[in-house]
From TrEMBL:
One GO cellular component, as annotated: chloroplast membrane
Name this polypeptide is given: Uncharacterized protein
Parts of the chain that traverse the membrane: 124-140, 152-173, 185-202
InterPro entries registered for this protein in UniProt: CPP1-like (IPR021788)
UniProt keywords, alphabetically: Membrane, Transmembrane, Transmembrane helix
A family per Pfam: CPP1-like
Keyword DNA damage: no
Amino acid sequence: GPPPVFNRIYVRDPHKRLGVSYDASEMEVEEARSFLLSQYGRHERSREAIEDAHDRIIFESFRVRKRSKINLKTNLKKKLDESPPWVRKLASFVETPKSTIILQRAALYAAIGVWSVMNAAEGGPAFQVFVALGCCIYFINDRVKSLSRAFILGLGSLFIGWTLGSLVIPSLSVSVSLQRGSLELFTALSSYVFLWVACTFLK
């Protein structure tokens, strides 16, 4: 027999046409589309009406998200402009890269951390710290095109990370007797975090 016809073809509101609420998630919109297409997909006009409603909802959702991101950036910039000079100066050293770069460098330093742990029995993590520092200097220099600045930021981050690690870790482990090698390892791991932050966000 003839394919069933979608009874909301001429409903103008895309949400009402798909039968979803205005605060429906994209997954709920996709599920509604799939369900309706399974029922009325054989009828061309019905299929077009369902697809049109789906596309309009998704596009509007994307537009709202984009607008909210722009508003957030504008508000942050306004807050920064109104902040004290030292805050603006500090913010000028920070730059947020793409999420892929953040994750790649986090994975690199996590791998160096695992390497340090795996080789802990063979000696201190001096070589791994040297590799981590070298990577940090390389990445910063690649961004700022200044080897001297890269050295200063890299060595400064290592110094801060190592100093804080050597001060904080023993106080967190009062009930645990840390051997010298273990303390060096945990301090090295804390320095990797600071080196990752430096090579990823500082400029």
